[in-house]
Amino acid sequence: MYLKTLNKLILLGFLCFSCAGKEKTPDNNNRLWYRYPAKYWNSQALHLGNGYFGASFFGGVEEEVFAISEKSFWTGGPANGNWTKAGVNPKAKESLPLIRAKILNGETLIADSLVSNNFFGSSELFGYFTSVGNLSVKFLNHEARTDYYIRTLDLEHSLGTVEYEMNQTRYKREYFCSYPDRVLAMRFSANSPGKISFNLKIDILQDSSSIEISENTYQVKGFINDNHRPFNVLVYMRNHGGKVGKDGNFMTVRSSDTVEIYLTVATDYEMKYPEYTGAQPEKATTDIIHNVMKNEYGYLKKRHISDYRALYDRVKFTVEGNHEMEKLPTNERFQRLKAGASDPGYKVLAFNLGRYMIISSSRPNTLPANLQGVWNVFRVAPWAGNYQSNINLQEIYWSCGPTDLAECQQAYINWIENLSISGREVARRIYGTKGWVSHTTGNIWGHAAPIGSHPWGMFPMGAAWHCQAVWDQFAFTQDTQYLRKQAYPLLKDASVFWLENLIRWNGYLITAPSVSAEHGALMTENGLNPAFHDSISNNYYYCLPGIYQDIEMIWDLFTNTACAAKIIGENTFADTLLKTRQNLLPLKIGKHGQLQEWYEDIDHPECHHRHIAHLYAVCPGHQINPIKTPELANAAKKSLNMRGDGRFPMQELASGGNWARAHRMWCWTRLMDGNRANKIMTEMLTEQGFENGLTFQHADYHWERKDLYKEGELYCHFQLDGSASLPGCIAEMLVQSHMDEIHLLPALPDEFKTGKITGLKARGGYRINMEWKKGELIRAEILAKKESPVPLIRLKDRLIHLNDSKIIKFKRIDD
Description:
There is one protein chain. 32% of the residues lie in helices and 23% in strands. The chain is α+β, with helices and mostly antiparallel strands. The chain has a 9-stranded antiparallel β-sheet with strand order 1-6-7-8-9-16-13-12-11, with helices on both faces. Strands 2-3-4-5-10-15-14 form a 7-stranded antiparallel β-sheet. A 5-stranded mixed β-sheet has the order 17-27-28-29-32, with helices on one face. The chain is globular. 54% of the residues are buried. The model is unreliable at 1-22 and 701-705 (pLDDT under 50).
């Protein structure tokens, strides 16, 4: 009885300590929290970021570890005039007419061979995203056993915390990654004086580095593997009480009351073609730390929170949920959701986490988020951490328009603008035409050429797909200055490329050479079939004529560019685009009632391939929708049903993980089936998800024995795309605007029967606040700029006249 009473008193005292100054209980749909430290980076660590660099913390009691990564830590390098090493095959331009002739004549295997030998270029300069290394803080007189422990990531304030009690002392750690001050800030404190003692060390993953420790600074200078680009990591420590010293490569702290640590990291990279070289990293980090030294921790924290919440607070989303589930730690909610329990609030948590990850990994004047966002613990990031441009990079940014994060998407737009410079060179050197083009893979060096192998390398639609984001940035913001100066030149030149590269076949315009995204055909005794097993065969056919993903992307590109041209005043060019669009190969419905992936009707009901690029016309495009093109919409549904929602036996590698499921749930949302979309969302979060809320694409082989394998080798690693796109998908369940109208509650799932959302954006620059109950709208507010026209409004399946509606209000605002 005495021990129970003592434990209760300890817990009560700890809660008083940890909640001091707080006016409300935590919102568990706005935070991740756990009662134990993390062991695994992928599934358990919590991630902080400021767009420039990221820090993943584990919360170990005896030792805290931060995995540090910075987005310009790349090997490889720019072309700098050596286009052969940058992926331009010197035989490509002269071989292109023959390749196209073979494709048009049905000699696909010969065309494929020519593409392999004469079209794909060298990847010598491509490189990969690599980690900085680990910051280790090893505490003295600490043991793993604690009387109380909690590890959290506060999504509302972008703060990480670790709190625990040991030997009647309460400890608190607080972390944040500041965008305005460009530092990772850490604060270690206790409720008794002199209790903070530790040894700090940085272990760099690069081969060449040196450590300098002097007074309160810890500096690591070095060079990135392969390209020998310089980097600098600089740590500044501010102690309150106690002593700071040095012991070999360790910085030591003894008997302090409170310690604050600030870390920054930089390379000499600048996104500036052709050399991509900027300020020296030692000077950059020194300037950053000198500015930090002028301010107290509280001021820096306040500044960080203010900057972050200016973005995060724009959208607020709530649903009527399971209050008992919401009281549980995040890992328990995850496990119960996985077991089939109902927890609508977990989707709110995922919505908030997705926006948090976007804000933390993509900010103005930084590189865009890559496959892992800004986080990486590997010497070579999975899939090189590249800017994969046949869905992944684009999907990361699908949420930015509808959830009002245009500033975050600007990093992506700026990267596209830089890419277009080398893209013009690739268009000229490989295709012999004007305009700009890019292919599947991207890096920080402006890589735009085709490299690799047929399934994923022969994809000339990168620029066209990037331009969908370029247009949407304007559609949601209505920033005409952006349209004139940045967007329209990109849209126009991407369109010019295709005006000069479309070729006529069977009376229509098609692309060649091209491969349907990572998906070829296999010649069998029954003729061509989708090669969906990802096996190796000499009977693969890749560069088939009539790849419908390309047709749909060009239709979308020409449509958006024509709209932009009319705004700019280039009506003749707009007319040319629309006239050419009419001559594109028409979409076809196949023998199974499906939307065909290829001109040849070879889609197979047992093919569950991860890519559904031939449904681009549904999402992110707007060529197909249930209201205006119901027959094609039904064919799209058939294709989705044939492909299935997730992984399939014997097709584990070929079928869908996180980003593939995300594309499916977006398509079902556009097709106004919110329940199907929500089902896939649940499966993505559980079957392809981790307890830290992130999701993965990789097939989970050996996941059950992860202790036997090095993390990232034989079991899955997270990708940002699926998680980042989830908020936008939920937003489109509630509001859609891609069909020149504002459609309220177009795909409301039963799980969100009652809820409220504020701050959603619609194309045209409108802002939407609304509330619904038992599946029915009870109030909505549409805010518009003074010059904006009154939009068409649709509620579920019917058009609404604003003058006749008592629950939908239209209001003009100054902003």
